[in-house]
Amino acid sequence: MALYVVATPIGNLGDITARARTVLASCDGVIAEDTRYSGQLMQFLGLKKPFHSLPAFDEAARVQPLIARLTAGESLALVTDAGTPAISDPGALLVRSAINAGIPVIPIPGPSAVIAAVSVSGFLEGRFHFAGFLPRKAAHRAEMLSEISSLRAQLVFYDSPNRVHETLLDLQEALGDRAALVARELTKLHEELARGTLSELAERFKAGVRGEIVIVVAGATVETVPEDPAALEREVRERLARGERPKEIAEAVVGSRGESRAGRPGKREVYQLALRLKDE
Question: Contact at 8 Å (CB) between 128 and 95?
Fold first, then answer.
């Protein structure tokens, strides 16, 4: 009895791992997002197994029958159309339910569009933040981008081909005109790695494209991270409370942050802030 979370190829079927093949061959059944796509993979591997459908639109209603099979002793392999289940694809609810039921959940790692894109981005940040698909509603999209705009890590997004132009413009507005990579159709015949600034890439793809899209954006730098006014005011108040003079505060604060640029205050601004807070 076990639920195997099996990563499958993101395009090139030759990327299937030996371990994934073994698990798919030995399990009692396959839980698939779309049995048509997974059927092609099983045919490529020369395997026949019972299929259980788990589409995103009906995942909640289909979990409990699958849990019943698992608790009865079956071993099932969870796959998605491409890549790793539960990563911007169905499966997370099933995995959580299996954990709650005491069923072993075993990862079978393999191809990943996120890792593939980051590995060839050329950006030097060792960390990355996977944001998945941006929200459809403009307000929610802006809120999400505001939350991650100051991260000094590569930002990775999934996108649909008919929205990529709009997405790139939204990213430019929220993050600034940073360097980025648009990875299209990774591992497939028409694979494309387009590099440039967000504005350049938006222009390049304004007519739309076909295929699966991963966007990688360079992380924020010291120059692109805006100063937090509340944090600055707290520091100035603390220094005033310690008896420091406004001129000393301005020199110390700017000295630790660097001169004014990209929204960061210079000595004059900090000095005036210290005078105002001192008079309060």
Answer: no
> Using CA atoms, how far apart are residues 85 and 89, in angstroms rounded to an integer?
6
How confident is the model over 102-159, as pLDDT tens digits?
Answer: 999 999 999 999 999 999 999 999 899 999 999 989 889 989 998 999 899 999 999 9
Q: What is the pLDDT of residues 48-79, one digit of tens each?
A: 999 999 998 889 999 999 999 999 999 999 99
User: Distance between CA atoms of 70 and 170, rounded to whole angstroms?
Assistant: 44
Q: How far is CA 202 from each of CA 135, 198, 206, 208, rounded to the nearest angstrom?
A: 19, 6, 6, 10
Q: How many CB atoms lie within 10 A of CB 26?
A: 12
Model confidence, pTM: 0.77
DSSP letters for 79-136: E-SSB-TTSSSTTHHHHHHHHHTT--EEEE----HHHHHHHTS----S-EEEEEEPPS
**SS3 category, 69:** helix
Contact 234, 241 (CB under 8 A): no
